[in-house]
Amino acid sequence: MDVSIVIPLYNEKDSLKELTERVISQLKLLKKKYEIIFIDDGSRDGSFDILLELKKQYTEIRIIRFRKNFGKSAALSEGFKRANGEMVITMDADLQDDPAEIPGFIKKLESGLDLVSGWKKKRHDPISKTVPSKLFNLATRILTGIKIHDFNCGIKAYRKAVIKAIPVYGELHRYLPVLAHWQGFKVGEIIVQHHARKFGKTKFGFRRFLSGFFDLLTVLFITRYGQKPLHLFGFVGLLSMFLGFSISLYLTILWFQGHGIGQRPLLFLGVLLVIVGVQSFTLGFIGEMLTSTRDESFECSIQDEIN
Ligand code: UDP
Ligand code: MG
């Protein structure tokens, strides 16, 4: 198998037929062996029946159906587990990503990159989405040092080795390039066409910003300290303990000199810093114990699998 197209979808019945036809017409031109894996993330609008119909017509289609809505990251993760292609291309099911980009992504992978991310340079989304997204991309670029512009683009291409190596859970799909880069893979981008949503509506509301922020923290944490949490918590803990200890020492000296210290706010600060420091330190230790036994796999409940 040369190419696997992985498409997560949640209530996208209106676009599936057109999407499939356009993807297949691109793949046929490439003369490569391919499969299209749809992951129905618990749709309630009849998307699954449409997929079954399409599968009758196109045998290259595989369908995974989740028992309920587990989220885009879970869907991608499951698609990655099952993809057989040497190259794996993910795209959204809502036709915002253009299937005509597929050959460009493949070319770029063949030129030596391990992960190619799309860059929606000209976006067709409401401003409530584009402005926060710009800020997020800027913050991510600065904090991670990866020089790409659009971390959350739905269309991305991966070499098989990349998807087998990175865990996707929570809503970490936004940060796959970061995780891949951290594992030492070569990450690049190409500019893609972006289209306004034709049918249905976006599946991520305002909550996307909050989850995006938390996931950025998670990604920063796991890429820097995931294997050595004590290095972060231990540092913070020691610093806090040191400050607390210095304050207490100062007050102790004053006390021996005959000053009353019982009413001084500084006393409480000193005690607080020592306690917080010890806690942070022990948290780091617990983290270290967990990293040595951790299992990063994520299991979903799958209703059907049609190959
Ligand atoms: N999606 C999914 N599960 C979810 C939410 C979204 O599989 O819980 C799919 C959705 O059907 C689409 C893709 O993820 O194919 C991107 O979602 P959407 O277009 O709503 O995101 P946006 O373009 O607004 O960022
Ligand atoms: Mg979309």
Describe the structure.
There is one protein chain. With 307 residues, this protein is of the alpha/beta class. The protein has two domains: 3-225, Spore Coat Polysaccharide Biosynthesis Protein SpsA, Chain A; 229-300. 49% of the residues lie in helices and 14% in strands. The chain has ten helices and eight strands. The chain has helices at residues 16-30, 47-57, 72-82, 102-110, 127-144, 160-165, 176-182, 207-224, 229-256, 265-291, and strands at 3-9, 34-40, 61-66, 87-90, 115-119, 156-159, 187-191, 302-306. Strands 7-5-6-4-1-2-3-8 form an eight-stranded mixed beta sheet, sandwiched between helices. Helix 2 (47-57) links the parallel strand 2 and strand 3 (61-66). Helix 5 runs parallel beside helix 8. The longest helix has 28 residues, at 229-256. The radius of gyration is 25 Å and the shape is elongated. The two termini are 14 Å apart. The mean pLDDT is 91. Uridine-5'-diphosphate is lined by residues 8-10, 12, 41, 69, 71-72, 75, 92-94, 96, 154, 202-204.
Brief digest:
The protein is an alpha/beta fold.
Distance between the termini: 14 Å
CATH level-3 fold name of the largest domain: Spore Coat Polysaccharide Biosynthesis Protein SpsA, Chain A
Number of domains: 2
- Give the class-level CATH name of the largest domain: Alpha Beta
Strand content: 5-15%
| Major sheet attributes | 8 strands, mixed
Number of strands: 8
